[in-house]
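Regression test attached.
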Amino acid sequence: MSLTVVGSVAFDSVETPFGSRERMLGGSATHFALAGRFFTDVRIVGVVGRDFTDDHVDVLRTRGVNTDDLERVSDGDTFFWAGRYSWDLNSRDTLDTQLNVFADFQPKLSQESREARVLFLGNIQPDLQREVRGQCDRAAFVALDSMNLWIDIARDSLIETIRGVDCVILNDAEARQLTEEPNLARAARRIREWGPEIVVAKQGEYGAALFTDSGFFSLPGYPLETVVDPTGAGDTFAGGFVGFLAAHAGSLPSDDLYRCAMTYGSVVASFNVEEFGTERVQRLTMDEVEERFSEFERMTSFERVPLPGRA
Amino acid sequence: MSLTVVGSVAFDSVETPFGSRERMLGGSATHFALAGRFFTDVRIVGVVGRDFTDDHVDVLRTRGVNTDDLERVSDGDTFFWAGRYSWDLNSRDTLDTQLNVFADFQPKLSQESREARVLFLGNIQPDLQREVRGQCDRAAFVALDSMNLWIDIARDSLIETIRGVDCVILNDAEARQLTEEPNLARAARRIREWGPEIVVAKQGEYGAALFTDSGFFSLPGYPLETVVDPTGAGDTFAGGFVGFLAAHAGSLPSDDLYRCAMTYGSVVASFNVEEFGTERVQRLTMDEVEERFSEFERMTSFERVPLPGRA
């Protein structure tokens, strides 16, 4: 079952308390694809500039990501972002943003990309997300990410786009901001009333929460002693989550699948933050993924122990 | 197995977006005892003033809490706190603090209280905590809570006290502040290097995390759509957690017990915030506790679903 992702492909320069990197391969679609490919065939739709080399393309292609719809614009440069994280990694300052060729991004989906059973609309302008969603009318499952910028300047369009998808994946602060509900459970209910069957709230180091008709599910973050670079963790989570669901797109969706997908998403995201950019996920193996899945099982399991004197 | 708690007994006036209450029964030892008594016999050590009526004592006594060591000072008033919560309940302003008789609190433990198998040192001055701990030399398990005030003004004393206990229960921000470690896993390791076998980090709406020799365990917060009053949630958690462990103080401690205790603590705390002060926990039943325990099981369980084409 194939999965199409539409989003940004970028170069990131990042400073954290643990070091810095210049012009690393990044972007929401990149992080998503490198995680999703562990579970299913991924097609990436995006735009890059003349500074994007074949070696960059090969990072994706040699890991099984289909790059046929990665458009290269010869008279411009790739989207560039530079940022610096605070000492506790919980906030960051943007030092530079150069949209470059991404400013005029018009996603061009090949027939193969349009026919994907599962579609992920990465964090781009909501009108564009809706247009892409319209092109993929055979998708059985469509998920969407967004960000505070679009909530600030295009809230109505974003809500209109959300009405047409099955799953919304947001940071919990964004879910609260979007719905103007300080309570996360109410915020998720509000979003689900707009149409999506499922809402996933990403909670950074605290993990992620899932809201469906069947109720609530939550997973903690993996307790790393050293987080080197949080950039792309949310997109990596989404790639694991949606990628796993895409691998099962022939099955009826079920809470069991969603919960397992949440765990795989959390697993891959936990590796992503161990090193800069995509460094760790690039050399990640499926054995490592499965081993950490088992650790998530161990760190969340508990049993009722009877009280003395009770049945 | 009995459990002695030493801490504050207070009157709280609270304003939240959902209403307000004047001079409710509160304080760390009160919330702790009303939660712990679901699991074991609790003895409360504290001080109150002339404004503390028999009806207030009866709230504890009729629920099985032993109040023999609740000292009443006839020429002073009970500790009073007033506060107002923000719209999202994630911050609060203190409007008034009157320490009253609590300012000169010198815990006086009867022989019975000193002989408890389990001791909880609620959030009081660390020198006092250490003195009480010294009086209870037969305790098999001693847990401690504290707050940012003592980290600010009595950090060395607090660390000295921590060296003599088995378990530290703190908000995660306090654990980071105490250890000057922004990373929670490192902060917990640092505290455990000082002596305590286990560290519990309370994470508010995100739940709670447990660090032991056996590794990491985490539970989410219960996803309430309406949180009326967070006051005392942390003490209620501690009461459920330590109370459950005290009920098993004859057994060897084990990770299974700690994890189950984390869940009971989270369950009772989730009820505490549903209404003002101790209102909800006062009329809570063990059947309700067990039912919500089952909900925690449901909202954290997941299974590995094989990927198509894999073994």
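Expected vs. actual: identical. Chain B has a mean pLDDT of 95.
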